[in-house]
Automatic annotation (TrEMBL):
The record marks R19, K26 as: Transition state stabilizer. Belongs to the IspD/TarI cytidylyltransferase family. IspD subfamily. The record marks R169, K223 as: Positions MEP for the nucleophilic attack. Its EC number is 2.7.7.60. It catalyses: 2-C-methyl-D-erythritol 4-phosphate + CTP + H(+) = 4-CDP-2-C-methyl-D-erythritol + diphosphate. One of its GO terms (molecular function) is nucleotidyltransferase activity. This is 2-C-methyl-D-erythritol 4-phosphate cytidylyltransferase. Catalyzes the formation of 4-diphosphocytidyl-2-C-methyl-D-erythritol from CTP and 2-C-methyl-D-erythritol 4-phosphate (MEP). It comes from Allohahella marinimesophila.
Length: 254
């Protein structure tokens, strides 16, 4: 395995959370024990030992600094807030990479993790970091698709769409985060990609035929997207701590 010099963690947190249909962006909604989604995600990543956390927020968002002040004072200097939010998630990530110019080296690892995914466990973090560090371009977490997949007529704001076919789920995975990619490769790919086809970091690299490796992760690393996801994420987050999975590490690779 090649030596990992530096890992920068970018946490896109500039979304409006439209699908949550809440008055407050989802990153500031209460998750559990009086803590917001943002606080819970940051505490989990700090507890897992990540050193350089960058929370990328939207212009005009004045709430992130207050959340950071709630973190353990001994850990606060590991978290930086950058107002690098863009129109789409990919814009937020690229703006943050550009803001790191001169600080990040070309082969540093950039670990992008949705702030709306508080339930990342230590063993998965270790696995994706180890694979990315040993790869040329990078690696992402994912889980195999487990439901039957249907193609329907175009979405028409109605609940009863006609089904046109069943799509084979062979070889299909759900992409999760973290997605861990070397700085120069990720920045160049996002700058040059056809952005209409970019929904995650890996999809930008795929356009230039970089090999991004898929690492099997836990399916409970959910993204809070719909209103019902909030209670589920709170349950999973607490349970992962109670059963010792949250901070358990992968066995050291040989
Ligand atoms: N312009 C954007 C859009 C999204 N995100 C972040 O990317 C993550 C995953 O995106 P998603 O779940 O799509 O969040 P939202 O865009 O907030 O949700 P919605 O699409 O429902 O509005 C979230 O942490 C979100 O804050 C971001 O930083 N900048
Ligand atoms: C990056 C991502 O989390 C992978 O599943 C996801 O694509 C981001 O959310 P969005 O709803 O596609 O913006």
């Amino acid at each position: 395995m090649s030596e990992v010099k530096t890992v920068w963690t970018i946490l896109p947190a500039a979304g409006a959370g439209r699908r949550m249909r809440a008055a407050t962006p989802k990153q500031y909604l209460h998750l559990l024990d009086g803590k917001s989604v943002m606080q819970c995600t940051l505490e989990r990543l700090l507890a897992l030992g990540l050193q350089r956390l960058i929370v990328a927020i939207a212009p005009g968002d004045s709430r992130a600094a207050a959340v950071c002040e709630l973190l353990d004072p001994a850990q606060q200097d590991r978290v930086e807030v950058m107002t690098t939010g863009g129109l789409e998630r990919a814009d937020t990530v690229l703006n943050t990479l550009q803001a790191l110019s001169g600080r990040a080296a070309d082969d540093d690892l950039i670990l992008v993790h949705d702030l709306a995914r508080p339930c990342l466990c230590g063993a998965d973090l270790d696995a994706v970091l180890t694979t990315a560090a040993g790869s040329r371009a990078g690696a992402i977490l994912g889980t195999p698709v487990s439901d039957t997949l249907k193609r329907c007529v175009p979405w028409a704001r109605r609940d009863d769409l006609p089904i046109t076919e069943t799509v084979s789920r062979d070889l299909l995975w759900r992409a999760l985060t973290p997605q861990v990619i070397r700085y120069a490769v990720l920045r160049q790919s996002l700058e040059q990609a056809d952005r209409s086809r970019v929904t995650d970091e890996a999809s930008a690299l795929e356009q230039f035929e970089y090999e991004v490796l898929m690492v099997a992760g836990r399916s409970d690393n959910i993204k809070i997207t719909q209103p019902e996801d909030l209670a589920l994420a709170a349950f999973i987050y607490r349970q992962q701590h109670e059963d010792g999975m949250a901070l358990a590490r992968a066995p050291a690779s040989t």
